[in-house]
Amino acid sequence: MDAKDGIDSRKEYAFRDPVVRHVCDKFVSRSDVGYEKYGSTLDDERRFKMKGLQKYLNDIQEELMDAVLYIQTAREELRDLSEEAMIRKFVEDEEI
C-alpha cells in the first residue's frame, strides 16, 4: 500500500526504556512532517525511483554537515553559559 492511500497497519510496541519510546515517537513525527511537506515517503521515493543513490548520499552528507554545525553551536552556547555562570558567581562572591 502506498503512503498516499493511508497506513496499512500500525504495530504496537512495548518499551522498556522511555528514551527509546521518545526516539521512536520522534521518528514517526518526523515521517509525518516529511509526508506533509513532500507528499511521499522514503519508501515511495525508493520504489518509484524518485531519487537515486547519489541523491541519497548527497542528502546524508548535507545532513551530517549540518549536524556538525549544530554540535559546534551547542558547544559554544554551553561555553557561553558556563562563562556567564562563573561571572555571576564572581560578582556574587564580591558582594558578600
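[next item in queue]
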Amino acid sequence: MRRRVRSLKRRNASDDGREVEAPLPGGEEAGKRWNLWELEQVAKESGSRDPARDEERALLLLTLRQFAASSGSLPSEFDPLVRDVFGPTLSASSAEGRG
C-alpha cells in the first residue's frame, strides 16, 4: 500500500520537464479531487461485503488523512489510487446521490 502511495506522489516528466498525464478510459476527467470524508462515508455504507476489501479501504483512508486538507479535499494525484481501491463502489454511490 505504501509503495502505491509513494509511486503516485512521484511525478512523471517528459524530456522537456513538462508533466505528462495519461488519459483515463471512458473520457473521464483526469485527476479528480476526492473528498476524504465522503470516501469514508462510501466505505462505511458499502462495508462488510468483503472483509479484505474493507481492510484495504480502511488502511488507505487512514494513510490519506495526512495528505487531505482540513475540508477533506485530496490532491488529484491520488485519483488513480482511489479509483483502484474503491472501484465500482464509487459509481454506485454517485448514482445514488443523483437520484
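[queue empty]
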